[in-house]
Write a structure and sequence with these properties.
single chain, 650 residues, alpha+beta, five-stranded mixed β-barrel, disordered N terminus
């Protein structure tokens, strides 16, 4: 809100600091000054404020502004930070914690009496006991040692801890999980379910996966159609509503996968134990069984509680090798049936206009010390795509089934992109000679899918995929079924991963209650509230998980490139900004070429054409261009990688 004080324009908002010391105050929508946008705060106008603080500011008169509205922080209304994660630099009488978070510029001062057992170089948590005043640093006390200096993955552990995620489960939640694991499956429970233990069923996952929440079986029928069974771990049987396990799973919202580490949503006794569909072990499941015709249409389906016994634990690469070899035998024939069905489902989906982004993603391999051994483009081979198609089919079928039942549910929603984003995309594509057809206010997914098919195999394919993806809305969890634009589906949900996603667990509860005929008016009201809470909270935890994963990737990429300063690489221009050009290397590592290093000319940024052009030479650098660069410098803490262009004579 804003008010007048002695002819001063005063506003209150949230401070977002930049690693270079300046920041912006984000004003609430109901502020009289909200039309000004974010208010710039210079380093000298911070007056002890830290990132995330709620602050009161004086607005500087408009005639004194630079490029944007400016203000001075006059009061800190509410502190955001209670602790700081970083590296301990120990001295004889005092020390400092250097924050890992780039937005926290100032080190935290630690008196000797507050060292605890921390040693120099340890990753620690400093509890703030005195906030900064003026130019003074914040003062803290070491409250936790995350990892000792030199310990494997110390930096990644610090990123996870700094995000506020607790890697340790509360005692009562852990005990409930252990009890469920020890008790196993009661024979009475098996008798209540459809027994599929004799049906040939397999899991297909990554080589290092430990939590298997989906298993599949495919049978080719005499009329040419296929029976597809997707069996999902019945996590809801073990995680009872409002239990300590349930409350902890809700709070986490999802598992977080950070390089070679996992912070699971559920304790390992469940996620890797009794809920994991391990081979040759009886497991309780929810099954979505579908009859799919030769054109990919799901003609019949049934959803029911079941018990399975996975016959094999297969690995993506091994399955892909078999299918890609074309060497069909009596023993592996079922894999080829699966591949045929997946191809049919994919063709049907593409015919409806489903957008399949083919974006290169980095695969970062670590050695036994946690250092980066290699970075390469992750492969999405035939087996990966096969499982994706089966899971999409099950998710779509379950969503449509329960939509028509008009019961509380959690849907996965992807809204139509805004007309502004589509206009920007059309301008960008036009610069490449590509036409985006149709009414942009009512853009259809098949129009975007057609563009991706047109640029397939071209040098700028990955860039176009990336730009188009960035123009999309973010998918969220909602209680209203508004459809999934990217998949060109009216009905979609997440049903297939209750071990690692709370929305899946939530809808499993709804499904099981309906299957047992126990959903009355009271239950409908209860589930409506719980589904709404799960949708909102899980959308937020998902965003946090993605940011943690990206932060860890940026860190490891910077560490990898630090050892390669001075080396030359080929890359593609992945972004053009007002201060420099982003270049992505063939292994997905991205760095920046700043204009001040391009000394052959003065380059003007032309945002509408996604390019930079030299004033004198008229040399242009456009999104998608191939260039040669040299690694110039790397700053680990800032996750900053700097390149220089090699085709410029200095």
């Amino acid at each position: 809100m804003a008010k007048k004080k002695s002819n001063r324009s005063v506003a209150t908002g949230t401070l977002k600091k930049h690693r270079k010391g300046f920041g912006f105050v984000i004003l609430p929508e109901d502020s009289p000054y909200s039309e000004l946008g974010d208010i710039f705060i210079s380093p000298g106008s911070m007056h002890g404020a830290m990132d995330g603080d709620t602050v009161e500011i004086d607005l500087i008169p408009e005639y004194l502004w630079g490029n944007s509205p400016e203000g001075i922080i006059t009061k800190i209304v509410n502190r955001n930070l209670a602790e700081v994660v970083g590296t301990f630099e120990k001295g004889k009488k005092f020390g400092f914690v250097v924050p890992d978070d780039r937005k926290i510029r100032d080190d935290v001062f630690i008196r000797k009496k507050n060292f605890g057992k921390a040693k120099n170089g340890d990753k620690v948590v400093a509890k703030i006991i005195k906030y900064p005043e003026g130019k003074d640093s914040a003062e803290g006390k070491i409250s936790e040692i995350i990892a000792r200096k030199g310990e494997k993955n110390a930096d990644v552990k610090a990123i996870i801890r700094g995000s506020g995620i607790n890697t340790v489960f509360p005692k009562n939640a852990a005990e409930q999980a252990s009890k469920a694991q020890k008790e196993g499956i009661a024979e009475d429970e098996i008798k209540k379910r459809r027994d599929l233990r004799d049906v040939f069923t397999v899991t297909i996952d990554g080589a290092h996966s430990k939590d298997f929440d989906d298993a599949v079986c495919v049978e080719k029928l005499s009329d040419g159609s296929y029976k597809l069974g997707v069996h999902i771990a019945d996590v809801a049987h073990y995680v009872k509503e409002n239990s300590a396990l349930d409350k902890e799973a809700f709070e986490r919202g999802n598992s977080v996968y950070v390089l070679d580490q996992v912070v699971p949503m559920l304790p390992e006794a469940l996620s890797n134990g009794i809920c994991s569909l391990n081979p040759e072990q009886d497991r309780l499941t929810l099954t979505c069984e579908m009859i799919v015709d030769e054109k990919g249409r799901i003609k019949e389906h049934e959803i029911y509680e079941s018990v399975i016994r996975s016959h094999k634990r297969l690995v993506y690469d091994d399955v892909s090798d078999i299918i890609e070899s074309g060497n069909r035998t009596e023993e592996n024939g079922y894999l080829f049936d699966m591949a045929e069905l997946a191809a049919i489902l994919r063709q049907k989906r593409e015919a409806k206009g489903s957008i399949d982004f083919d974006i290169d993603e980095a695969e970062i391999s670590l050695d036994d010390k946690g250092n980066v051994a290699d970075i390469k483009v992750a492969e999405r081979r035939v087996a990966n795509k096969l499982i994706e198609e089966f899971m999409l089919a099950a998710n779509m079928t379950v969503a449509e089934h329960f939509f028509w039942m008009s019961v509380p549910f959690v849907y996965r929603v992807h809204e139509r992109p805004s007309i502004e984003k589509m206009e920007e995309l059309r301008t960008f594509l036009r610069s490449l000679g590509i036409t985006l057809k149709g009414d942009l206010s009512q853009i259809r997914p098949d129009a975007l899918s057609a563009v991706l098919k047109e640029i397939s195999g071209k040098s700028y394919e990955n860039v176009v995929n990336t730009v188009m993806l960035r123009s999309m809305q973010k998918a969220t969890y909602e209680t209203e079924c508004s459809g999934h634009f990217g998949l060109a589906l009216k009905y979609y949900c997440h049903f297939t991963s209750p071990i690692r996603r709370y929305p899946d667990l939530m809808i499993h509860r709804v499904i099981k209650t309906i299957l047992k005929g126990k959903l009355d008016e009271k239950g409908i009201k209860k589930f409506a509230e719980k589904c709404a809470a799960a949708a909102e909270h899980s959308s937020a935890t998902e965003r946090k998980a993605i940011e943690i994963e990206r932060e860890a990737e940026r860190l490891k990429m910077a560490e990898y490139m630090l050892e390669r300063v001075g080396l030359e690489y080929d890359g593609i221009i992945s972004g053009v900004t007002g201060f420099g050009i982003y270049v992505q290397l063939d292994n997905c590592v991205e760095g920046m070429v700043r204009y001040e290093t391009m000394r052959d000319d003065y380059y003007d940024y032309e945002p509408e054409k996604y390019r930079a052009i030299g004033e004198r030479t008229h040399k242009t650098y456009t999104l998608g261009d191939r260039v040669r660069i040299k690694v110039d410098s790397v700053y680990i803490r800032e996750r900053e990688i700097n390149f220089i262009m090699k085709d410029i004579d200095k």
